[in-house]
Predict the structure.
Amino acid sequence: MTRKKALFLIGSPNQTTQMHQIAQLLEDEFEPCFSQLYYDGWMRGFYRFLLWTGGLNPTIVTGKIKAKADKYLADHGLPNDFEGRQFGNTYDLVVCCSDVIVPWPLVRTTKTVFVQEGMTDPLNRWARLVRRLNWMPILAIGTALNGLANCCDIYCVASEGYQQHFAYVGVSADKLIVTGIPNFDDVAKLRDNDFPHRGYVLVATSDLRETYTPDNRRRFIARCTRIAAGRPLIFKLHPNEKTARAVAEIKQYAPPGTLIYTEGNTDHMIANCAELITQYSTVVYVGLALGKPVHSYFDVEDLKRKQPWQNGGTSARRIAAICRGFARFAGSGAEFLRQHRAEDFAAEGAEGAESGAWPVSRSVSQR
């Protein structure tokens, strides 16, 4: 049987690995290809202008972040159909890790499933203005307005808290379903690791300056030092930061003996730390799920409400099932989700009848 074709849009290391996990679960029915995020159609000229002027240099679509994604595809032997122009494919399904940058002609004619990457950037004054005026979400320079375009058929999100967030930003409520997200749905397993240090305060920095956001790094390092209160400090730098500058600042302002990592498994470092300090980083959810004291520029209570599901690492399977079912479905994404929830409810009802338990729906409203 000829397999359908699916295009998975990738970006950061987290987005890329999540998409690969989902694609692997669909290989029996779909021939997967991958591409870095891109614009097409009437937006292509504007996008090329932003690239030419360097306006997108700090983002995931250029530079070392894009190079990492390309290397990941090459290392795993995955077909790189960059901008959908390498193989001449006609796709049956597009799986998006963002709707800020999307190939508009393709998503308007092809079934699309959005998968939340992780934490979204804060809705600062500029992002709120862009949202209010319904301008192009790319102008917010970041992920704050993921969802504003409302262009995908189905949106798979991390939690009920994020379901509410995406509805507020602009996604139609009937397109949203809580599935959990790969890479953040089974953090308990991270306790078993070989990172050599324990009992330290870990600082996971963000690429604020690289995305045109003010960041007084000297003041931030001083705050981290106060929180550590004499305990060992370890800094793990964001992969998009200007490494030389960040390292020099830490060496100048942090206590002697502070360790700095530019590479390595951040999740393992969190699992072994005594306390976690972040700025705007999805890894704060790893710390929360592991019961660590955490610090963030976000409101921690709001983060707790948005905490991704811990479902034993089944999010990729849930999302793959939605992709497979929707690709076969004749109606809209909202119609598919209504049927999907009804089937889930009926299945749980049958299981409950056997055990004597009352069925509990898997619909997003009751999760």
About this structure: The two ends are 37 Å apart (CA to CA). The CA atoms of residues 248 and 254 lie 10 Å apart. The domain at 187-303 is CATH 3.40.50.2000 (Rossmann fold).
